[in-house]
Amino acid sequence: MFRLSNLISSVIENRPSRHLNGSIAIWNFTNRCNLNCLHCYSKASLDAVDKLSTSKIFETIKKLKEANVKFIIFSGGEPLVRKDIFDIAAFAKENGIITYLSTNGLYVKKSNAQKILEHFNYIGISIDGVEETHDYFRGLKGSFRESLKAIELLNSYQKTKVGLRFTITKDTLKDLEAIFELAQTHNIPKIYISHLVYSGRGLDNLKMDITKEQRVKAVEFIINKAFEYYETKRDIEIVTGNMEMDAILFLKIFSKKYPHLKEEMKKRLIKWGGNSAGRNLLNINSEGDVKPDPFFPIKVGNILKEDFLDIWINKPSEVLKRLRVHPRELEGDCKECRYLEICNGGSRSRAFAIYNNLWAQDPSCYIDYIKER
Predict the structure, then answer these.
(1) Closest Cα to residue 241, out of 278, 268, 277?
(2) What is this structure's pTM?
(3) What is the pLDDT of residues 316-355, one digit of tens each?
(4) 3-state helix, strand, coil in the chain (%, to 5)
(5) Strand locations in 95-242, DSSP E?
(6) Are strands 98-103 and 289-291 parallel, antiparallel or unpaired?
(7) Are 150 and 120 in contact, with CB atoms under 8 Å apart?
(8) Distance (Å, rounded) from C-alpha 251 to C-alpha 367?
């Protein structure tokens, strides 16, 4: 995750920026889902069967704590379909782990809103454009209104705990500006913009991705909105994900606005370190497979067959060892790139999807398109 808003305010105001002293686990607790999203990396459906028992999840949470995992992002499928999801969240909190919920919002009702807020430190609800775009993209007419109602309901209790999630594709790009207008109109305190990763239905729909020229323009717009919100004291946080090269374009724009703070910002971006898959980011899917990130094409273990601590710490695979070298030793344009220590080469999942090579350059990298701007 690239936290634009936090970096802007912390550097300009000479405060420490948010720094993760530990790891994040994105855990797909189920592959059941009430939607059929075009970009879904887990190919979720209502026909899926849950493989992980509550007791096995509890056992693994204790191991995650030992491995210094600080956050669990509850994902799916749709995590709220599990009847034990609140028990799982409560157990994670008892073990000192911060809980985030990633949901489509359709199961958020007045009857459970307070319970959701009590069990999760943050709730991200997916909105993929205006009503027509969102409903098409999510595969269900009326889903936009239900998701927006969920955001408004949760915000009516506690505004700082909910935000919207948006994925940039050719189908949704035209609605990028509308997403920010939506956040402003409904006083939504956080916008998370995700770039498409070629995995699951995202791989099946590779043609959905935008061009590099379109990406540069989109990211410039996002970055400029972050500056606008900071300068006008608008309390909306902006975060991007799955495109660590955003940090390089951000540094260029920041340096023009605040040249005297360029080196400090660069220092913080290097400390942030770019793509962290396998280093301080991990994924456990609904089958119990452990991967460096949710999109990763290679499994490094399975919690139903092996001890998590052996998988992640005691006996790491060669893939994990190589991912943990920073900056990574990569091929192609990444090999000699002067920005590698900032972005760390971006997504290995995209590299594998296009080049069948984990260590190739990220095919979505748009640095060459920044140089001329």
Answers:
(1) 277
(2) 0.92
(3) 999 999 999 999 999 999 999 999 999 999 999 999 988 9
(4) 45, 15, 40
(5) 98-103, 122-126, 162-168, 190-195, 237-241
(6) unpaired
(7) no
(8) 12
User: Which of the 8 DSSP states describes residue 311?
Assistant: I
Number of residues in the chain: 373
Q: Helices 131-138 and 143-157 sit at what angle, rounded to 10 degrees?
A: 110
The neighbour count for residue 271, using CB atoms within 10 Å, is: 11
Contact 249, 372 (CB under 8 A): no
Question: Bridge partners of 302?
Answer: 289
Identify residue 304 by its one-letter amino acid code.
L
The 10s digit of each residue's pLDDT in 41-68 is 454 455 567 889 999 999 999 999 999 9
Q: Which residue has the tokens 């609605």?
A: 175
Residues 6+ apart with CB under 8 A from 341: 270, 273, 274, 326, 327
Measured CA distances, 274 to 115, 144, 164, 243, 320 (Å): 34, 32, 23, 9, 16
Whole-number Å distance between alpha carbons of 53 and 58: 9
Name the band, by pLDDT with cuts 50, 70 and 90, for residue 134: confident
Using the Cα atoms of residue 212, residue 214, residue 218 and residue 220 in order, give the sign of their dihedral. Answer: positive
